[in-house]
Each structure stands twice: as structure tokens, then as C-alpha cells.
Design goal:
Layout: H1 8-18, H2 39-45, E1 57-58, E2 64-65, E3 71-76, E4 84-91, E5 95-102, E6 135-137, E7 140-146, E8 149-154, E9 159-164, E10 170-174, E11 181-182, E12 197-199, E13 202-204, E14 213-220, E15 224-227, E16 252-254, E17 276-281, E18 284-290, E19 296-301, E20 315-322, E21 327-334, H3 337-348, E22 361-363, H4 371-383, E23 390-393, H5 414-422, E24 427-431, E25 436-437, H6 443-451, E26 465-467, E27 470-473, H7 480-488, E28 502-506, E29 526-527, E30 531-532, H8 533-536, H9 540-555, E31 564-566, E32 578-580, H10 588-603, E33 609-610, E34 612-613, H11 622-632, E35 638-640, H12 656-671, H13 673-686, E36 691-692, H14 694-697, E37 710-713, E38 717-720, E39 729-734, E40 740-742, E41 748-749, E42 753-758, E43 766-769, E44 772-776, E45 792-797, E46 804-810, E47 824-831, E48 834-839, E49 855-862, E50 870-874, E51 878-885, E52 897-906, E53 911-915
Parallel strand pairs: 22-23, 22-35, 23-24, 24-28, 28-31, 31-32, 32-33, 34-35, 45-49
Antiparallel strand pairs: 1-3, 2-3, 3-4, 4-5, 5-21, 6-7, 7-8, 8-9, 9-10, 10-14, 11-14, 12-13, 14-20, 15-17, 16-19, 17-18, 18-21, 19-20, 25-27, 26-27, 29-30, 36-37, 37-38, 38-43, 39-42, 40-41, 40-43, 44-45, 46-47, 47-48, 48-53, 49-52, 50-51, 50-53, 51-52
């Protein structure tokens, strides 16, 4: 039975909230807690180094090697009700795992601490190495982590350091400032003690009492630290949050929240949380990941924060604070930052390989009104010669905001609508959020209620909160049984009106609750296994994303790759699809902050991400919209989206000149789809992101370390956004010793130099790195699907030795057959005036085969002497001409680069082309 209706006044107030204008819904600081209003954060933050009354120490004689090869010990203090159990294990090649929980065998509290399930890969434990017996000297024990790394455990007080085996130089240290505190679970509330917490009109009963954990981690040899999405920032590196010179002292908050018009510059947490930090300096890269889904606050401490008169050069101290959970932490050490990312990916999983259409352009709005509107927008792209691949429908397409339904007055024939879009090789996406309308006539609500599948409130009743449909309840996605049930709802039988070309968008899955504390679910709500919401809050959207992705895999009988976009995320979300940066605003600052935000997501595993092009809230000026398309065309996830209160902003609505500029930006993206798809394949194997900070490719160049305005796409392309209105010039730093070639006209620029460039409205500054080969497709169609059989162009940018390399990956663009060997993977090598195509696909993956008749129709060679007149193709001794040609096929492009025309060699074959 549904609960009694809310009082009329409250219902009216909530209705007004739902109908409020964007300006009314703008981010309001007072609606969200700061550290001083968050008791666990305030307690931990006020402690001075080495000031704890009960510092934790290793119990003498407890250190031992377990049968499975991990190192175990007890940590305690005489004041504690029970000791802590420590477990150290090693993962190849240079990773250390530290696990600490309470020892429940000595005294048993009513509840145990929560260990986050289904985030780490299932084989992590089985890959652990067998640690040798530690050597103990003078109150410290040392064990080899690898051939060049040791772990040193100091006993009293407890401290852990990962150091270089030869030099003894520290790389990462835990509790070197004595701030490790682990509040014990209590068996009952002491008399006179208050556990409840108040914030505004909400009360958190906290029936299990304080249970927070805090500790310090130091990154030695680091100039900067990065990571901890998600927050708005124009800085790629994490700025200090406490200490000398810090004006506003708030830690980086990790607590998934629905934030309207978030600030572009703030440590305040947004829609997703990944507690992973990377430290980097010349010759030193390291990472720290804490698997904990409770609210977390992290300070980056400025030099001198601890009152020291002198500070260690090249060390960054951080303070980590969480409301609940356990210590399950990973220390990663690499020779370069890519090594650190690969190790993080080795425990949380590689990004999923997307379908090819998903890498192209997406068109979205809240909301396209009806089937006629959909048809008009679709036709508008064709009329204006602008390609796109996906058209999106927001919540208004549903019947009264009941998900898996259609409003039959505006969308009477959804299957036919999708078929018409699909006939042009395009797809559609509909939104499915976690809040289920509490309506006795809604089949999904009735079924979830009958099965007991909703999250419970603190009293044990189905939790009832308000979201877009009004009174709503939320499936308990922690429970695998409920995730399976949810996945079944995406079958064609259950989701009536859906077709194989319909994909899914998960929004509001932080979860968003309009009348909840901080616009989310109360912390004392209860999940499967008697787990409090506070313990898993940051992972709720992750589990929802997982279940939806699994649903699309089920729908396709395991044959088709899913596409699911999620707003909320956690560590491991990269395995299930794409994310975006949420409800940004149509202003220049949000355009600028989108680059560090997307780069940070890539560094922390989520390579498939982007920002709403044009800004979700507000009406962008035409110049801003053009610049956003020019930048957004480089995002891994490229989508235009807007709020329903904004003016329509399809690319052809701003005059012929602006339309031409946006068309050109989208065409550029489509020409680079072969390069992007190849990079996504690399990411799906290694975790190295598609869109990268400059320092990921140039780790020893200090000029790149905090450059959040320029970025790399793969190893071969660098782009610099334009982030100011009426900007006339821009300074672009091009790293490395080799040349860079302008993507538009092939002009060379020196490396290791900042170039002051005049700004043109035609494009943003973008360059190809000497020594690389970039594959393209230059024939423009309505969608990427219609480009499948088109020929390729190779753009070769020669370095100072006359050499270059690049790769091309091709598969069917949709199925999982590539996992059984059905793909083409070629490496192109140019050296000694010869271009060679080499097969680099392993031959032991399976029996399936993929082939294509696609050929290479043009080879553009930047940096080649203009005297070359012909090329010889082997095998076959075929001679073809070389003459000057344009870099791109855009109107008015000059012929500036030696071009091998129509070699027509197949991409699937081995061949050599010699420049004669």
C-alpha cells in the first residue's frame, strides 16, 4: 500500500520546486554541508600532526606471512574495545594493497563495517604475489614489494612507506604525520552521548554512532597531484586546500550530489566520486586509491601546513577523511604516469569498447516535443549537411514520468519513429532514471513493491522521496538480485516501443531526491544486508549504471555492445559506459573548466566522457557556441544538450556563417573517427585515456604539468581551446623537441616553445606531432554508419629523422566478435622513405575473422621534400604519382603537402610504399 499523501502545503512547495526556473535552481552554498558542518571532517581536520591521544601501533610479535602469501598483523591501542587487523598484499608489477578492519572475534558490535562489493575485478585476490618473510630491525619491518621497491612498516606508531630498494628514497607514505584514526564501532550508545546529526531541517539518526577513518598520505618526488573527480576547476592539478597561502579552506569533497548550475571553480563534490590520486614529478609517478563508497573529504596540504620551518622539496602531503567503511587502499608506483594508470585499471577494470556510432556526434535537448519535432530535427541535419549519429529524448517522452513508457499523445508510434531514424544509420537514446513513480497503476512500482525491491527508510518502510514524478521510491541496486531484475526490464517484451537501435541514458542516479538532505537520500536509509546508505552512497549510481548496461547486453543476447550514459559514477564505472560532466552553464568559464574535468576523468579510468556542448543552462552567445563546438569536437563523448527553458540551439539556427563553422567542427570529428576508434581500442586494453594531459605524453617536461587549457588526443594531436570572448591571440606551448604541424594547413612549429598565435574564428589551434601517423576518413556522410566502406587517408608527420608511426584498428563497430579475433589492427611505419603496413593483431584470440575491402586513397606526408614525384607499391611494383595536395578537403584549402594519390592498397593487407 502506498503511504498517505503529503500535506497539501508540502506538495505545493515541492511542485513549485519542480517548476522553478534555472535561475531559481542555481547552486546555493547554504543548501550543502561544508567541512565544519560535517562532524567527522571537522574532527579530523582540527588535529595537529602526531597529536592523537591514542596513536595506533603494531602489536609486538603479530606480524606474519599468511598461507596465501599476504602479510598480516594486529594494530591497536590499549584504549580500543578491539584491535584492528592489517593485511598487506602485493600485485604485479608495483602495487601494494593495504586492508584494515576491526577484529570482530574479540568483541562483536551489532553491525560490521561495509566492504564495497563488485568494484574490483574478481581476480584481484588470485593475482596477488607471495610476499617474503619481513626483516625486522629496530622497530621496523621491511619486505620486498618487487625487485626495485620495498615496503617498510614502522611499529610504534604505525607507519607504512613504499620506497626505492636501492636508494631507500620514499615514494609513498601512510601515516608519516601521525593522523591515522579509526573510530571503533560501539556496541551501544554511551549514556549521555548524542549520535544524531542535524543539517537544516533534516535529522540523521546515526544509529550506529561515529565510525569515521582518517589518515595522511604523502607523495614523495611529486610536483603536483591530480585526480579526485568530480569538481569544477580550471586547474588540472589539485590546488592546495589548507596551509600557508590558501585563502578558502575547504577540502575536496567526494559525495555524489545533484547540483544545479555548479560552480566552475570549487572543491565541492558533484555527481560522481573516484577516490584516486596521482602524484607526478620529473622521474617519479605514483598513485593512491581508497576503495570506500562513503562520503570522503580530502585535503591537499600546502608546504608548511604542519608548521615546519623548512619543507621537503618535492613532497605533497594529503589528508584523507571518510565517514564510514574500512581501509582498502592501493599504492601504485610507476616509471611514468601511464604505468600508474595501467595499475589502477588492473584492479578496477579497463574501459568498455564502445560501438562506433557512440564515438560520433549526439544531439540532445530537454525535450524534443513529439515525433514531428524529432523528424524535423533529423531532417535539419540533412538539409544543412551536418552529420550526426544519435538523437536523444529526455523525461518528457514518458507517460507521466513513468520510465519504460511512452507518452502516446506525443509519441504514438515510437517503433516507427526509431525505424525512420535507423534507416539513415542513426540511433536514438531515451532516459531511464532510478526514481520510480509511486503510482498504484504503474506496473514497475507495483512489482518492485510486491517483491520488496526498494531501498528502506530508517524505520524499515519503502523509502519515499520526491523527484521528477513526485512521490518516488528507489530500487536497491546493491542487491545483485534486484540488478538482475532491473536488467530484464530492457527486453523488447518489457520495454514496449523499444527497438535494437534504442540506447539508454541514466540521469539523477546520485541518487537525486528533491526533498532529501542535500538533495539526496538520507544517510540512515537501509540497503540489502542491513547496509546504511551512508556506507555505499557514492556507489549507488555505479550499481545502477551496471544494471542498465547489463540489461542492454541481455537484450541483445550478449551479441551487441551496450551504450549507456550515466551522470553518477564511481571507480569501475568505465566498464559500463560513458559519463558526462552534468548540468554546466553556457558561459566561457564553464567551457574552460570542461577541459580539466574531462582530463581528470580520463586519468581516473573514465576515458569516455565529455561536457554538454553549449552549456546545459542558459543561452550561449553564438561565438561561445561555435568555440564550444570547436573544443567539444575533441571530447571523447561529443554531445550537444540544453535545458528546456533555453532557446533552441540546433547548429543551423545562428546564421549561415556560424552554421558553417559548427558544421566544420563536426566534420573534423567525423574525419578523425578512425583515429578516435583506434584510441578507444587502446583504452579498452591499457586504460590510457583517449584525451590526455600534455604531461602524460611528455612526463619530464615541467611546462606541461599544470596546463589545463591544452590537451592531447592520443599521442598524435594537440589542441588548445579558446576560452575568452573576442580573444585575438593565444599562447600555445608545444612540448618536445620535434616539430608540430598545423592540422589545417600543415605549417610547422618548433617544439619546447610557446607560440603566440593569432586567433581565427575558423578553428581552434590544433597540431599533429612530428613522428606520428593519423588515419582519417574524409568523405562526409549523414552518419558514421554510412562511412563504413569509405576509403582512408593517412596523414604522416615526419620527425627530424624522417620517421613516423601510427596505428589503425577496425572491427564491425558493434558486436563482441572482436574478443574472438574478428578485427584488423595495423601498424604503419615510415622510415628510410618507405611506408610499411604491419599486422599487429595477435593470432590466438579465437576463430572469428573480420575483413574489409576498404582501401587507402590518399597519403599526405608532412615534412617530406617536395622533390618526390612518384611512389612504388610492393608487392606488385605499381607506380603512383606524388603531387602537392591540401591537408584537408575543406573549401578553399591550398595544396601544400606531398600527397600519394590513389595508392588503393587495402588496409587488411601487408604492403610497402617506397617514395622514389
Amino acid at each position: 500500500m502506498d503511504p498517505p499523501p503529503l500535506p497539501r502545503v508540502l506538495r505545493l512547495a515541492l511542485l513549485l520546486l519542480l517548476l522553478a526556473s534555472p535561475a531559481t535552481l542555481a547552486w546555493k552554498k547554504e543548501e550543502f554541508r561544508n567541512c565544519n558542518q560535517t562532524p567527522f571532517c571537522k574532527r579530523a581536520r582540527t588535529r595537529a600532526p602526531h597529536s592523537l591521544d591514542a596513536p595506533l601501533s603494531l602489536v609486538a610479535g603479530s606480524l606474519a606471512v599468511s598461507p596465501e602469501g599476504s602479510l598480516t598483523a594486529e594494530i591497536s591501542h590499549t584504549s580500543r574495545p578491539r584491535p584492528l587487523i592489517l593485511r598487506l598484499s602485493a600485485l604485479p608489477p608495483h602495487a601494494l594493497r593495504l586492508q584494515i578492519d576491526e577484529d570482530y572475534s574479540t568483541s562483536t558490535p551489532p553491525h560490521r563495517r561495509f566492504h564495497v562489493p563488485d568494484v574490483l575485478l574478481p581476480d584481484v585476490d588470485s593475482r596477488a604475489l607471495h610476499l617474503s618473510k619481513p626483516k625486522t630491525v629496530g622497530g621496523a619491518s621491511t619486505v620486498a614489494l618487487s625487485s626495485d621497491l620495498d615496503v617498510v612498516v614502522k611499529h610504534d606508531p604505525f607507519e607504512l612507506t613504499v620506497r626505492r630498494a636501492g636508494s631507500g628514497d620514499p615514494v609513498l607514505s601512510f601515516n608519516s604525520h601521525g593522523l591515522f584514526d579509526f573510530e571503533p564501532l560501539q556496541e551501544s550508545k554511551p549514556e549521555g552521548e548524542t549520535w544524531e546529526e542535524q543539517f537544516r531541517s533534516h535529522t540523521d539518526t546515526r544509529p550506529r554512532g561515529p565510525q569515521s577513518i582518517s589518515f595522511d598520505v604523502s607523495f614523495h618526488g611529486a610536483d603536483f597531484v591530480y585526480g579526485l573527480p568530480e569538481h569544477g576547476s580550471t586547474s588540472l592539478a589539485l590546488r592546495p586546500t589548507r596551509g600557508p597561502g590558501v585563502e578558502e579552506s575547504e577540502p575536496y569533497r567526494l559525495f555524489n550530489l545533484d547540483v544545479f548550475e555548479y560552480l566552475h571553480e570549487s572543491p565541492f563534490g558533484l555527481y560522481g566520486s573516484i577516490p584516486f590520486m596521482i602524484g607526478h614529478g620529473p622521474g617519479a609517478s605514483s598513485g593512491f586509491f581508497w576503495l570506500n563508497a562513503a562520503e570522503m573529504q580530502i585535503d591537499v596540504l600546502a608546504p608548511g601546513w604542519d608548521g615546519a620551518t623548512s619543507t621537503e622539496n618535492g613532497r605533497i602531503d594529503t589528508l584523507w577523511m571518510a565517514e564510514a567503511g574500512v581501509v582498502d587502499a592501493f599504492f601504485f608506483v610507476g616509471s611514468e604516469p601511464k604505468d600508474v594508470i595501467k595499475q589502477y585499471i588492473s584492479v578496477t577494470g579497463t574501459p568498455s569498447m564502445p560501438q562506433q556510432f557512440a564515438v560520433a556526434y549526439h544531439q540532445c535537448r530537454w525535450n524534443y516535443r513529439d515525433e514531428e519535432d524529432v523528424a524535423g530535427v533529423d531532417a535539419g541535419f540533412d538539409e544543412h549537411d551536418i552529420p550526426y549519429d544519435v538523437l536523444w529524448l529526455d523525461i518528457e517522452h514518458t507517460d507521466g514520468k513513468r520510465y519504460f513508457t511512452w507518452d502516446r499523445s506525443t509519441f504514438p508510434n515510437p517503433e516507427e519513429m526509431q525505424r525512420k531514424i535507423a534507416d539513415k544509420g542513426r540511433k536514438m537514446v531515451t532516459i531511464v532514471d532510478p526514481h520510480m513513480k509511486r503510482d498504484s497503476g504503474y506496473y514497475l512500482h507495483e512489482e518492485a513493491t510486491a517483491k520488496g525491491y526498494y531501498v528502506k527508510d530508517a524505520s524499515g518502510n519503502d523509502y519515499d522521496g520526491w523527484c521528477w514524478p513526485g512521490s518516488s521510491s528507489y530500487p536497491d541496486m546493491l542487491n545483485p538480485e534486484i540488478r538482475d531484475w532491473w536488467a530484464d526490464k530492457f527486453s523488447y517484451q518489457n520495454y514496449k516501443g523499444s527497438t535494437p537501435t534504442l540506447y539508454i541514458w541514466n540521469d539523477m542516479n546520485e541518487p537525486s531526491v528533491f526533498n532529501g538532505p542535500e538533495v539526496t537520500m538520507p544517510r540512515d536509509a537501509i540497503h540489502n544486508g542491513d547496509v546504511e546508505h551512508r556506507e555505499l552512497h557514492n556507489a549507488y549510481g555505479y550499481y545502477f549504471h551496471m544494471a542498465t548496461s547489463d540489461g542492454l547486453v541481455k537484450r541483445g543476447e550478449g551479441k551487441d555492445r551496450p551504450f549507456v550514459l550515466s551522470r553518477a559514477f564511481f571507480a569501475g564505472s568505465q566498464r559500463y559506459g560513458a559519463v558526462w560532466t552534468g548540468d554546466n552553464s553556457a558561459d566561457w568559464d564553464h567551457l574552460k573548466s570542461s577541459i580539466p574535468m574531462v582530463l581528470t576523468l580520463g586519468l581516473t579510468g573514465i576515458t569516455f566522457s565529455g561536457a554538454d556542448v553549449g552549456g546545459f543552462f542558459g543561452n550561449p552567445e553564438p561565438d561561445l557556441l561555435v568555440r564550444w563546438y570547436q573544443v567539444g569536437a575533441f571530447y571523447p563523448f561529443f554531445r550537444g544538450h540544453a535545458h528546456h527553458d533555453t532557446k533552441r540551439r540546433e547548429p543551423w539556427l545562428f546564421g549561415e556563417r556560424k552554421t558553417a563553422l559548427m558544421r566544420e567542427a563536426i566534420h573534423m570529428r567525423y574525419s578523425l573517427l578512425p583515429y578516435y576508434y583506434t584510441l578507444f581500442q587502446e583504452a579498452s586494453v591499457t586504460g590510457v585515456p583517449v584525451m590526455r594531459p600534455l604531461w602524460l605524453e611528455f612526463p619530464d617536461d615541467k611546462e606541461t604539468y599544470n596546463n589545463g587549457e591544452a590537451f592531447m588526443v592520443g599521442p598524435g594531436i594537440l589542441a588548445q581551446g579558446i576560452y575568452e570572448e573576442d580573444q585575438k591571440s593565444v599562447s600555445v606551448y608545444l612540448p618536445g623537441k620535434e616539430l608540430w604541424y598545423d592540422l589545417r594547413n600543415g605549417s610547422p612549429y618548433k617544439g619546447s616553445v610557446s607560440h603566440k598565435l593569432q586567433v581565427s574564428e575558423d578553428s581552434i589551434p590544433s597540431f599533429q606531432r612530428a613522428g606520428t601517423i593519423v588515419p582519417r576518413k574524409d568523405r562526409f556522410r549523414r552518419s558514421s554508419t554510412q562511412m563504413v566502406n569509405d576509403p582512408y587517408t593517412l596523414v604522416i608527420a615526419l620527425d627530424s629523422s624522417g620517421s613516423a608511426e601510427g596505428e589503425l584498428y577496425v572491427d564491425d563497430g558493434k558486436s563482441y566478435d572482436y574478443q574472438q579475433g574478428a578485427f584488423i589492427h595495423r601498424r604503419f611505419v615510415f622510415a628510410d622513405n618507405k611506408l610499411t603496413s604491419i599486422n599487429i593483431a595477435p593470432d590466438n584470440l579465437g576463430k572469428k575473422v573480420f575483413s574489409t575491402e576498404c582501401v587507402i586513397e590518399r597519403i599526405i606526408i608532412l615534412g617530406l621534400s617536395s622533390g618526390a614525384k612518384k611512389a612504388i607499391i610492393e608487392p606488385g611494383n605499381q607506380e603512383v604519382e606524388i603531387d602537392l595536395g591540401p591537408i584537408s578537403l575543406r573549401s578553399g584549402s591550398r595544396s601544400v603537402a606531398p600527397t600519394v594519390r590513389r595508392p588503393n592498397v587495402r588496409v587488411v593487407d601487408d604492403w610497402t610504399i617506397r617514395i622514389a
